[in-house]
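# nightly structure sweep
# worker-07 picked up a monomer target from the shared queue
# config: single-sequence mode, recycle default, output format = structure tokens
# input follows
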Amino acid sequence: MSRREIPDLPEGWLIALVAVLVFILFVLSLLVYPPNARAAEPIKAGAVCTVPDAWYSVPNTQPQATAPQAVRVVLLAPIPATNEPGAWIEPTTGPRAGYQFLIQAERLKECKA
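# output follows
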């Protein structure tokens, strides 16, 4: 039996292969983490936020229709039953002004310090 010779690869093939793999990983990272996607600003106590419909329904299974409302964040605290991030809020206007409610922090939108 004759032994076949393996053809020699061009010089620098390993460097080219690594460069292609790095490029592919770079492109995939751009798909997963786009450069203009910023982390949301952390919500702080004292901020005024907008809460969409049914903000006072906990859990939000049978929401009552309301208009989005401005609320002031009093304290950030986890929801005891689920340990989800939560916020004690106080509506700034309307019949619930002066009362405090614990809601899911993800319901807070457009917060301004």
